[in-house]
């Protein structure tokens, strides 16, 4: 089986997937020769901590890297020996199997005092939280006063087990899970290098199953490549990747949202006839509901946690979210969670049928259909409803809205979202997935990560609602421009406040303190930070 993880290990910062903020910081420090002497890389497993550490070790030792540059050349003797694991200057220590103080004294302290043969001696200590207390104390002493030309990179998946005294001496970098979209990109690169054609559906499936862990994804891809086929589609991989039924899971949730028990029960029986394993099917439904729940709680949160279903499914999920308010979603989630713990019955589909019938009959007070029929009305009536402010706008002088910078737009954004939510729940959802830029000469740019969200906004009737609302809030004519930015990091850029009465998103940019927007939002809407 190909060892893809080793073959395609990143050799430059540019090769490392995701972790953009961390890469930029490290590269700036390298270019400005302002590197610290101790770094703590924390985050989930298999997201690139040791890869980043190795690239950093290579960069500090590279013989050809000029000042002002940050990438290692990858070709000089130092780069090559580090890459092959033969460098005497770069020591990788697995703290999990060397927990004691003697190990720290012998392997780290003693050799840290020796001058490096090249530029710098680098200690990469993996799983550092496994060290014993006395080992940590010994390590602390050397980190407090590190010899010149020594660099410590401590990696951990459990930063809470690392003593605060150590953390405070290190520059801390928090690694995030890699988004499935980024994983798909890397996998298709590998596939093209291996000259194997793999369908996008299969790649998205691998990314989804890996849950944001690149190494797992690469190992699954390795199994797929080992099939030895030149062209690989869903059917070829059926034995490796269990077939999923996401579309059917969404169909079922659609029936529940529309309170159609007949449709739901027929679907369940159709699946039973096809020999679908209900336990697995239920897991798929729970994942989708979890996504909808997280999305309603905080935009970008689901993505941050690696819950990304690929573009085609995301579109359906976003439509479904509009139909399922948070309370309804929780009710279904609770019932299905119960169901997943029940023992199997003599008629396997019966407990499932009962659950869906119950969910359809018991219309909770939370359900949209029982309280508010707005979402079931045809789009035409929505447009008509929305045209009232437009008529007013025609009477008003057509002045262009005054210019606002990005921060000022962000500060008004929650107000816009709340207004939009009253008009159109699905547009509200779409807007939670974008970040607005400055308003200039009556033109506002909205950045979207996903094409389908952007396209939804560009739908003429939707765009009209949006522009009217913007005109109302910014008191002047506003035209929208919707941009696509695949690298947009919604999760990190969008702290959000959610209150009991309303859920509002306040996209803000990295450079701004969250206090302003959140503070204003909390004041205006009585929201709390969750
Ligand atoms: Zn080099």
Describe the structure concisely for a colleague.
This protein is α/β, with parallel strands linked by helices. The chain has helices at residues 4-7, 20-31, 49-61, 77-83, 101-112, 133-144, 164-169, 180-193, 200-210, 214-225, 246-257, 261-273, 278-297, 301-304, 311-323, 326-341, 350-361, 368-371, 379-395, 406-423, 425-431, 451-458, 460-474, 490-493, 514-525, and strands at residues 38-42, 90-94, 121-126, 150-156, 171-174, 197-198, 231-232, 434-440, 443-448, 479-484, 496-498, 503-505.
Structure characterization notes:
The chain has 530 residues and is of the alpha/beta class. It has four domains: 4-174, P-loop containing nucleotide triphosphate hydrolases (Rossmann fold); 180-232, Helicase, Ruva Protein, domain 3; 246-370, Zinc Finger, Delta Prime, domain 3 (Up-down Bundle); 379-525, GMP Synthetase, Chain A, domain 3. Helices cover 52% and strands 11% of the residues. It has 25 helices and twelve strands. The protein has helices at residues 4-7, 20-31, 49-61, 77-83, 101-112, 133-144, 164-169, 180-193, 200-210, 214-225, 246-257, 261-273, 278-297, 301-304, 311-323, 326-341, 350-361, 368-371, 379-395, 406-423, 425-431, 451-458, 460-474, 490-493, 514-525, and strands at 38-42, 90-94, 121-126, 150-156, 171-174, 197-198, 231-232, 434-440, 443-448, 479-484, 496-498, 503-505. The strands form four sheets. Strands 2-3-4-1-5 form a five-stranded parallel β-sheet, sandwiched between helices. A hairpin with a 4-residue loop joins strand 11 (496-498) and strand 12. It is globular and about 75 Å long. The model is unreliable at 368-397 and 492-530 (pLDDT under 50). The chain binds zinc ion. Zinc ion is lined by residues 62-64, 72-73, 75-76, 78-79.
């Amino acid at each position: 089986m190909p060892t893809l993880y080793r073959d395609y290990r990143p050799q430059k910062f540019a090769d490392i997937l995701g972790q953009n903020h961390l890469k930029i910081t490290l590269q700036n420090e390298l270019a400005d020769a302002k590197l610290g002497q101790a770094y703590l890389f924390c985050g989930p497993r298999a997201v690139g901590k040791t890869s980043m550490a190795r690239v950093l070790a290579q960069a500090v030792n590279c013989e050809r890297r000029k000042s002002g540059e940050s990438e290692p050349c990858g070709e000089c003797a130092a780069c090559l020996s580090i890459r092959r694991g033969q460098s005497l200057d770069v020591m990788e220590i697995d703290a999990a199997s060397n927990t004691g103080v003697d190990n720290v004294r012998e392997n780290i302290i003693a050799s840290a005092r020796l001058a490096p043969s090249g530029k710098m001696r680098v200690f990469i200590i993996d799983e550092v939280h496994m060290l014993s207390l006395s080992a940590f104390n010994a390590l602390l002493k050397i980190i407090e006063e590190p010899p010149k030309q020594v660099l410590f990179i401590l990696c951990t998946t459990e930063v809470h087990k690392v003593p605060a005294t150590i953390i405070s001496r290190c520059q801390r970098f928090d690694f995030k899970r890699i988004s499935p979209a980024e994983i798909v990109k890397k996998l298709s690169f590998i596939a093209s290098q291996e000259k194997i054609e793999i369908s996008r559906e299969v790649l998205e499936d691998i990314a989804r199953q890996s849950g944001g862990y690149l190494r797992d994804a690469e190992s699954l891809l390795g199994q797929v490549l080992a099939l030895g086929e030149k062209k690989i589609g869903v059917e070829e991989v059926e034995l490796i990747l269990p077939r999923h039924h996401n579309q059917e899971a969404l169909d079922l949730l659609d029936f529940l949202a529309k309170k159609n028990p007949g449709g739901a029960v027929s679907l369940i029986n159709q699946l039973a006839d096809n020999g679908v394993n209900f336990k697995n099917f239920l897991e798929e439904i729970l994942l989708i509901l979890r996504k909808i729940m997280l999305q309603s709680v905080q935009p970008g949160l689901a993505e941050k946690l690696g819950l990304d279903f690929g573009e085609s499914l995301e579109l359906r999920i976003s439509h479904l979210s509009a139909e399922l308010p948070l309370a309804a979603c929780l009710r279904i989630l609770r019932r299905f969670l119960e169901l997943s713990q029940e023992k199997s019955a003599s008629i396997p589909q019966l407990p499932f049928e009962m659950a869906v019938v119950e969910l359809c009959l018991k219309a909770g007070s939370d359900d949209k259909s029982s309280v508010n029929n707005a979402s079931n009305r045809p789009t035409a009536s929505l447009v008509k409803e929305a045209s009232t402010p437009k008529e007013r706008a025609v009477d008003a002088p057509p002045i262009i809205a005054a210019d606002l910078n990005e921060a000022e737009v962000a500060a008004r954004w929650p107000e816009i979202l709340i207004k939009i939510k009253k008009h159109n729940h699905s547009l509200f959802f779409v807007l939670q997935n974008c970040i607005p830029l400055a308003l200039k000469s009556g033109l506002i740019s909205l950045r979207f990560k996903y094409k389908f969200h952007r396209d939804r906004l560009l739908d003429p009737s939707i765009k009209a609602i949006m522009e009217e609302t913007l005109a109302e809030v910014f008191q002047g004519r506003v035209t929208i421009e919707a941009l696509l930015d695949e690298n947009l990091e919604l999760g990190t850029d969008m702290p959000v406040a959610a209150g009991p009465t309303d859920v509002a998103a306040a996209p803000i940019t990295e450079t701004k303190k969250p206090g302003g927007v959140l503070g204003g939002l909390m004041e205006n809407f009585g929201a709390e930070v969750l």
